[in-house]
DNA sequence: GTGAAAGCGCTAACAG
DNA sequence: CTGTTAGCGCTTTCAC
């Protein structure tokens, strides 16, 4: 103990100079003689002086801290995004304060309020499920009005004017569906546990477009939107009633459930049924068979969001931008049919 | 715009009262008349006044913020711990600032320094790989000396005096190995990609003890400590040269690699070779076969670490404690042998 | 080249 | 019951 943090004031009194001399010396000001600077800097080093960040923040009105509000952290995608944000933040000398909304509107609002009280310079957010359902985004508008810029990613809304980083879910779902069609699937089902999310809708729409374009008609019964608990049951029913040869699972839960169910019902993947889904590489690579996925590039999204925010912080004037991150398909075994043995 | 954050001073001038009257009214002080309080509070609400946290922090010398330094965030275990920390923190009205050391000593030191400058009240840390190898823990001691209590979890060291939250890796590895022995495995291999970590060593030791206790001798060749890239190759060699009927994989990477390799070499799990490993439930449940795991209860660890830190923050006097979290085995298919068909 | 003083926004001891 | 004042630790203008 005893080594307590030292302050400018204390340094000044030890050296018998004024506080401002110390402060200026530490920032290497031209006003101070080299000799004095040296003395001060030496002592500062000796006592391991570090300016109190809180005081600096208060003085400067800046915190060099970014608030991040995520719906969940036990989720591969959001974790990746957070990782991307952290990479950029730490590189640009920003700290990040992470809050979790747990998909709850109230939690999200309170997170935003706690952060928008001077703790942070700006926010990166993916909107909570409940807020999207509710359609209430006033807390974001407020934060922006109060001078804390917001960057939204993935879960965004047109109702708030701010920077956004998204993937083109509509188009990517289209491409994913086309991938199944290209390998000769004729009866493609879609499974989803995220129908209440904007991104969920977009993916379904992209799917529909691809189906219509290729087949001219769409069987609504092949679209299962449900929750994780019921998915296995509903998919089992579908498999029993319809001849399915391809499945597009538009989120991680439904991807895992689909693989499990299809196998347990005695179908071979990909020979009987091909499947493309959403999942992180680690999971996709360790399923049997390995799962072809739409790679969302979470890290890229996080990096882009952080860069966007820091840019805005540095020069607040520009127009709001919507950045679209390219996505690609990581083909694995689940869509690699063996040569048909007739 | 224009709705800029409002301050006590501004409220005071609008109402024509003094700053301290406003401040006291807002904290519902007994010194102020109900009438005045009401006026102030009404106006504060109208302007959506929120005390500037930075100013409050500076004044109080507390930040109600916990720093968390993790070696990685793209890791199921650490993510779970972070989740646990967040749960408690948010419940106790603390924020968390998350930094990632990327297993690097330098990054860890700089993270600690950035945080130990007044930004936080205390720290929760799992030591980076490189620091463990290097054996240099001065940055932790310094932080503690400067008045920022540290709680270490999982990756801890006896060389720093502070609160710790760990699992009994030695004993748990012992139990895991016994689990294999109980289902009649006679030739058990251990695979590891974390031999440089303290926890890695402990798990190996626990394994050895169980083997010695049951068989009286230990074949060192059955212990593979390597890195993720080489594991498949080395395990393949081992399977070719020795008769193995059980595998204990002591980390997630080696668990996944072991399952993959054993299957690809044509062995049946669990009938030919049983396997127990470390992995999150989501992965374990979706492997084929599902993987029996040592459940480390990351969330519990995180919660415990956060509670420990907050406790210390509230009453700094007590002795340092080491809390040991109970671990259990989640048995799944990879250790459920079918009846032998002779 | 150095120092005094103000002020960031807030709280609280002390006066009135 | 209300107001004045000092001060948290720092930076910065303005005097000297």
Task: Bin the helical content of chain A.
Answer: 40-55%
Task: Name the poorly predicted regions of chain A.
Answer: none
Oligomer: homodimer
Distance N to C terminus of chain A? 80 Å
Instruction: Please tell me the overall pLDDT of chain A.
Output: 94
Provide keyphrases for this structure.
6-stranded parallel sheet; DNA-binding; 342 residues; 47% helix; 12 strands; homodimer; alpha/beta; 6-stranded mixed sheet
Overview of the molecule:
The structure is a homodimer of 342-residue chains. Chain A is α/β, with parallel strands linked by helices and 342 residues long. In chain A, 47% of the residues lie in helices and 15% in strands. Chain A is built from 14 helices and 12 strands. In chain A, the strands form 2 sheets. Chain A has a 6-stranded parallel β-sheet, with helices on both faces. In chain A, strand 9 (274-277), helix 13 and strand 10 form a beta-alpha-beta unit. In chain A, helix 5 (76-91) packs parallel to helix 14 and helix 11 (228-241) packs across helix 12 (252-264). Chain A is elongated and about 90 Å long. At the A-B interface, helix 4, helix 5, strand 2, helix 6 and helix 12 of A face helix 4, helix 5, strand 2, helix 6 and helix 12 of B. Chain B binds a DNA duplex (16 and 16 nucleotides) through residues 7-9, 17-21, 23-24, 27, 29, 31-33, 36, 51-52, 54-61, 118.
């Amino acid at each position: 103990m005893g080594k307590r943090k030292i302050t400018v004031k204390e340094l000044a009194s030890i050296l018998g100079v004024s506080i401002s001399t110390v402060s200026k010396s530490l920032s290497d000001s031209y006003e101070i003689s080299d000799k004095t600077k040296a003395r001060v800097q030496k002592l500062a080093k000796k006592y391991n002086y570090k300016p109190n960040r809180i005081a600096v923040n208060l003085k400067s009105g800046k915190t060099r801290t970014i608030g991040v509000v995520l719906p969940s952290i036990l989720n591969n995608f959001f974790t990746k995004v957070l990782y991307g944000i952290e990479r950029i933040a730490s590189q640009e000398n920003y700290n990040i304060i992470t809050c979790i909304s747990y998909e709850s509107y109230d939690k999200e609002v309170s997170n935003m309020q706690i952060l928008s009280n001077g703790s942070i310079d700006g926010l990166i957010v993916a909107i909570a499920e409940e807020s999207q359902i509710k359609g209430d985004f006033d807390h974001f508008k407020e934060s922006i009005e109060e001078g804390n810029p917001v960057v939204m990613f993935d879960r965004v809304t047109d109702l708030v004017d701010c920077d956004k980083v998204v993937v083109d879910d509509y188009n990517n779902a289209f491409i994913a569906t086309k991938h199944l069609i290209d390998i000769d699937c004729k009866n493609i089902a879609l499974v989803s546990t995220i129908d209440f999310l904007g991104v969920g809708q977009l993916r379904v729409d992209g799917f529909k477009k691809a189906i219509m374009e290729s087949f001219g008609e769409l069987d609504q019964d092949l679209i299962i939107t449900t929750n994780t608990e019921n998915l296995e049951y509903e998919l089992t029913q579908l498999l029993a009633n319809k001849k399915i040869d391809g499945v597009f699972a538009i989120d991680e839960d439904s991807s895992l459930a689909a693989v499990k169910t299809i196998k347990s019902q005695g179908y071979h993947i990909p020979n009987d049924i091909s499947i493309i889904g959403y999942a992180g590489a680690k999971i996709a690579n360790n399923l049997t068979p390995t799962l072809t996925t739409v790679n969302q590039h979470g890290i890229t999204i996080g990096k882009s969001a952080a860069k966007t925010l820091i840019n805005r912080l540095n020069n607040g004037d520009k127009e709001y931008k919507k950045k679209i991150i390219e996505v690609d398909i990581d083909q694995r075994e689940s869509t690699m049919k063996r040569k048909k043995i007739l």
